[in-house]
Amino acid sequence: MRRQGITFKLFVMTVIFFLCFYGMVILGQLLFFDGFYQHQKEGKVEKHLKTFGASYTSEQWTGSRLSQELVRFMLRNKTQLAIVKLDGKMNSDDPYHMKLRMKDGRELVVSLSMFMSEYGDELRAADIKEEDTLTLEGELFEEDSSSTQDLIYPVSITAGSRTIGMHEEGMTRLSGTVTEIVLPDLKLWNPRQGILLEALEEWFPLTSEQKADLEQLEMQKQEWTAPWSGIRNSVIILPVQRPGGEIELLFTVTSLQDVKDSNEALRWFFLYLGLGGLALILVLSLFFSKMVTRPLIKLNNIAKRMVSLDFTGDNSIRQKDELGSLSNSMFTLSVSLDSALRELREANRQLVEEMEHKQRMEIMQQDFFANASHELKTPLSIIKGFAEGLEDGVSAGKQDHYIKVIIEEADKMEFLVKDMLDLARLESGTIKLQKSSFMLSELTEKVADKLIHLLEGKGLKVVVIPVNEPPVYADSSWIEQVVLNFMTNAIRHADEGSTVTVRIDGQGQACVFSIHNQGEPVPQDQLQQIWERFYRAEPSRSRLTGGTGLGLSIAKRILDMHGCRYAVKNIGNGVCFSVYFEG
Fold this sequence. Notes:
Elements: H1 2-31, H2 33-58, H3 63-77, E1 80-85, E2 97-101, E3 107-111, H4 113-126, E4 133-141, E5 149-159, E6 162-165, E7 172-182, H5 193-203, H6 208-215, E8 220-225, E9 232-241, E10 247-255, H7 257-307, H8 322-391, H9 396-428, E11 436-438, H10 440-450, H11 452-458, E12 461-467, E13 472-474, H12 476-492, E14 499-507, E15 510-518, H13 551-562, E16 565-571, E17 574-581
Parallel strand pairs: 3-5, 12-14
Antiparallel strand pairs: 1-10, 2-3, 2-7, 4-5, 4-7, 5-6, 8-9, 9-10, 11-13, 14-15, 15-17, 16-17
């Protein structure tokens, strides 16, 4: 019940706040926005107009520079500007104009701002260039006899057979050759450029009161609505005095229609915003109700996790009240129980690992003794059998053969015992490496020379290919044992008459040793087992291929002591062993 009371209060407060805020925004927009926008825009234009007027009166601008400054001002303030005299005559050329050379040598200035407001696209399409001959109809303003140029506001322009505009009665018709044409860029053209000329026609001639105020250099500002479009504008006239004492007027026309259109759109926008605000109230009420119940739900979830022995929860409730205190206590309890449980699990894991390791060691010892007894049993049986034959007095022709067999089996037992002792020493961890630098290719060729008889017995060849070989820093005696075991293994399993290839590829200060023989590949599922003691790849574990079954296991232990990486894989019609020696 208390929770519902809080939710209801929060709901009412949210509604009141929203309605007050929304009402304030709507009233402000309806009552003050138009005036505020107009004041801001007119203030900006006035400020820039005064700056322009100060520069105009203090600097001697040429005609082209004046046109550039006029265009820059209009683009910056999104307004129209002209410099006129008190009688209404323009003292600045239209920024967008043409100049024609008449037959009598006089120059005719063609104002294009108003013309382009109606026929801008057609005028651009006509592609008028200098030296083209044009015929114009329009209102002509002749200067005094001392001036060499007149001004015309065209209503139609004829270029060749193409006429742009409309013929009107009573207009002056003139022809001439184009000497200059300045048209606005499409990105910069303002189609309202002609409004300026319309405003000039309506404002001039000035009333006596307006003229008196302007002669006193007082700024005039008035709202004006264009009669042909109904667009609201603000006309600002700033009088400036030239160095010679002549007064000129900076006449600007700034549109106020944008704010009216925007204000109408904003009214609809705020209407839709109000409808969305109603939906927002429902969301906020749900949010506040959940905000109250969220701490209790989190505490309940933490308790459920603790029942399931899950103590990984965090102290997510950060409130300075009873709920926050309860959350901190449960979090502290959870951390303590989680720490104790982790320690218990870690001790249990170590105990399990020790038991598993002990079992593996027992299995390895049993396998070792079983394999060792198996490997020793066969030569012992052979030696015993042949010795009994000698004792029974075999014929003299067989005695030499019996003795030879006994010696061979004794050698095999000796090799087996030696490998077992080497493996035991390596696994004991008491061996200290005596490292030095040596060339691996020279060591390989030395081992191959020792195995020459074994190679000749199967018609094999050993090819050593060193490529950018660097010296290896390792215990040469133990690495020699590794090479010997790899090469002996390769010879035993190589096809007769094939080649055993040894590559030593340098990789900066490191190198890769690889030995490849041609023969039966090792089954893919047994590739990692060949490093085990007494493992043979033959399914029957036959001893016909020779060896004690400990060579690769010994090589593995030696390489592990040196920290080398090694691998075995089937390549083509054979097997390749590789070792990576760090630099």
